Amino acid sequence: MAKIIIEGGNKLSGSISVSGAKNAALPIMAGVILSSEPVELANVPALNDVNTMDKVLQALGVKVENVGNSVYRFNASGQLGDEAPYELVKSMRASFFVMGPLLARLKKARIPLPGGCAIGVRPVNIHLKGFEALGATVSIEGGCAVAVADKLRGNKIVLDFPSVGATENLMMAATLAEGRTQIENSAQEPEIIDLANFLNTIGAKINGAGSQTITIEGVDKLGGGRYSVMPDRVEAGTFAVMGAMNKGNVRVENCDPSHLHALINKLCEMGVEVSYDENSISVHAPSRLNAVEIKTLPFPGFATDLQAQLMAAMCIANGTSSITETIFENRFMHVSELARMGASITIHDRTAVIHGVEMLKGAPVSATDLRAGAAMVLAGLVAEGRTEISQVFHIDRGYENLVGRVRNLGANIERVDEPDPATEE
Ligand code: UD1
């Protein structure tokens, strides 16, 4: 099993560049199914989750070519299958994004239910209810969600919750539906805007992405084109928190600070000097961070995907901080791992209360999920002594060459690679 080994305490300084966004690349890759003409995507990050989506698309009959330099070419002009393989969907729930595009293009789709994962149950009921509103008949058969339709018809859909995945899946399905679809209570995450921009680039007619109401005028077919994926705001946020914890001078480049206002506000409240321009953020931290309180919320609120990383910073802040997690019901697995490093945290229902300590101490810990893994790296970088992180395959799902990039800032960090078992999200 691969491990990341860190000798903590090195001061970090310099620039670190952000990759393309995983959470934008995955739905956009699924979206290529909607067109029978060639599509080229740039700024696609080199991640295990992207490799999984590549395999899902190929299994469905899409030709996929990784031409290097973060560029992929896709061609979905051939015969497409309507059934995604269980093994792939099980290993990455974002595979479920192919359901909307397949339903739109083939009028049928059979996708294994993705099941829960380490952070929660994560049902897909909102996606399925939306497909029904568009005129599909949906059933559950043999562990799969099955949807069939003679024709998809535009409709008004009010989401029970602004689910990111459901908004994306329904937006894709509605792209080729007859007439107008209005999705109300849509998620407003920047990745939704990126998906809409991609779809519009290849001929869709989507308005309002990034607001609570998205309107899609169905078109007969989509064309080809080239699109560049947005920068990863979670990666950028992770690096900004890393710099803030480390008391060095870290500049995060190739990002969009307008996606990170909630985090930047909290870092300022913690006493961090944050400056930013159109595509970079610089952080310089004081001798000790202040304690703060956060609540995770749908965008533009504080992102659940940055909660674990900020908790690592709170562990060494002056005073008592708290985090209330409102998006996922089980997203505190990193608490017991941080406790192994000397953190003082108690959990009361969905709120973690973090009593800051002077110093964390290196220990063997696990990356219990993707962002929890990032939090362990951040904690290890400031801890006294050696931290050994196992289950690194979780980190590989969302961070491209994390070790190499952090080492360039001056960290004493290395990866020891041994073959991993099959991964499960
Ligand atoms: C996406 C992101 C993930 C992020 C999350 C919330 C991708 C690939 N993943 O996940 O990194 O943490 O948004 O910002 O983009 N829910 C239902 N029924 C549904 C759908 C969702 O109850 O049909 C619930 C979920 O269980 C969860 C909440 O809604 O508690 C939010 O989920 P959602 O916004 O759908 O997240 P994902 O799209 O899965």
Walk me through the topology:
Elements: E1 3-7, E2 13-17, H1 22-31, E3 39-42, H2 48-59, E4 63-68, E5 71-75, H3 86-91, H4 99-106, E6 108-112, H5 125-133, E7 137-141, E8 144-148, E9 156-158, H6 164-175, E10 180-184, H7 190-201, E11 205-207, E12 213-217, E13 225-228, H8 233-246, E14 249-253, H9 261-269, E15 273-276, E16 280-284, E17 293-295, H10 307-314, E18 320-324, H11 333-340, E19 344-348, E20 351-355, E21 364-366, H12 370-382, E22 386-390, H13 393-396, H14 402-407, E23 412-416
This protein binds uridine-diphosphate-N-acetylglucosamine (UD1).
Overview features:
alpha+beta; four-stranded mixed β-sheet; 31% helix; binds uridine-diphosphate-N-acetylglucosamine
Structure at a glance:
This protein has 425 residues and is an alpha+beta fold. Helix content is 31%, strand content 25%. The strands form 6 sheets. Strands 21-22-1-23 form a 4-stranded mixed beta sheet.
Protein described:
With 425 residues, the chain is an alpha+beta fold. Helices cover 31% and strands 25% of the residues. The protein is built from 14 helices and 23 strands. The protein has helices spanning 22-31, 48-59, 86-91, 99-106, 125-133, 164-175, 190-201, 233-246, 261-269, 307-314, 333-340, 370-382, 393-396, 402-407; strands at residues 3-7, 13-17, 39-42, 63-68, 71-75, 108-112, 137-141, 144-148, 156-158, 180-184, 205-207, 213-217, 225-228, 249-253, 273-276, 280-284, 293-295, 320-324, 344-348, 351-355, 364-366, 386-390, 412-416. The strands form 6 sheets. A 4-stranded mixed β-sheet has the order 21-22-1-23. A hairpin with a 2-residue loop joins β7 and β8. α1 runs parallel beside α2 (48-59) and α6 (164-175) runs parallel beside α7. It is elongated, with a radius of gyration of 21 Å. It starts with a strand and ends in a 9-residue tail after the last strand. The structure holds uridine-diphosphate-N-acetylglucosamine.
